[in-house]
Amino acid sequence: MKEKLLRFVLLALLISFTLVGCYPSPLVSNTADSTIVTIKLSNWTANPVEQKLLKQVLTDFETQHPNIKVKQEVINDQYMDVIKTRLVGEAAADVFYLDVFEAPFLMSQGVLEPLDSYITPEFALEDFEETLLDSFKYNNQIFGLPKDYSTLALFYNKKALNNAGFANPPISWEELRSYSKQLTIDRNQDKRIDQYGFGETPELARQVYKIKAFGGKIIDGNDYAAFASESSLQGLQLVIDQYLKDRTSAQKSDVGTNSGSEMLGQEKVAMVIEGNWAIPFLKETFPKLEFATAELPTLNDKKGTMVFTVAYVMNKQSQHKKAAWELISYLTGKQGMSKWTGTGIALPTRKSIAKELGYGEDLLRSAFVAGVGYATPWQIGKYPAAIMNNFDNQFVSAMLGQQPLPQAMQKAEMSANRLIKAME
Questions:
Q1: pLDDT of 5
Q2: Which of 25, 95, 194, 380 is deepest in the core (most CB within 10 A)?
Q3: Which helix H or strand E contains 293, and what residues bound it?
Q4: What is the value of pTM for the model shown?
């Protein structure tokens, strides 16, 4: 397994031109009264607010566990390359973040500690959202416990919809396209669009549920790319048609912004699909914007969305597994999770905490909570980067009209599978 992981890491490093170093393992120090175990936690952080909150939660943990100290390491650059390299060198942290996107490969490599033997009935495993927990299972074993999540929801400018005569957001993709036509505005009649009806993000992470709505799939049973089938193309073609034929949707680059949230905040678009993370961003950056959220419009008469989640996992080579489990069980237990998600920075993976915090009734967050039961996890097999990168490049090309969608997806699929074969 280590040889396969090493081969995979070397290829990934060649692709990304990334060089990373190794760090020493955690230490055990003796004091006059007891032995203090120091364990290492590796993670990334999206912003200073998130980092400050995690430090507070870790401080609370140390207060309640005086014999355990946590050495936190933030890795924001090439996180997974660093983690994989350290796992090969047996220098990875005791506990670390693992994105659902990367989980299948690492779970298959024998480098993570199965958590089943540590979990007791009191931990209330059944309290976790099943879709999220299942994403970190492999060969009927649990390798990670999800710390938080976000689904995708429709964000819309309330004023823009009201001005166009819409009392409610669209509930189907057909309605979304119809709304978009009326919400696309060229105020000066100079062919320069002042406001598009919809902001599109043409990444695979936002398109998987559209592919599945028509019976398509991303990978086959052997983890090879399989998104170029006729059924897979039906949902994708709707995106292309709205962009090229209707001309009522825009990408962030079309309107000079950096994200879908910014497109909505700057009122370049009236509607956009984003995650829970967009709520604090919009409130802080665009305080005058009146926005609301809703569940995603149905596709092919089916509800669908994506779910993104991250788990705490344990390094199988950890010398302090008991202490590592104490940390994981606290952070994903009811007390730790309540503190972590209580500010609204993320959504809790435990149903009881979501109920306690009232997120199911929250005007802005209820759409995200409602979607987790039918969401598709952002997980596309053991070789996700090869699939994602090739899809994204070719799909954008099709959106721009540079080649037909079927041709673009065939190219992407063949290229991805060549890379996957080289990594096996």
A1: 59
A2: 95
A3: strand 291-294
A4: 0.90
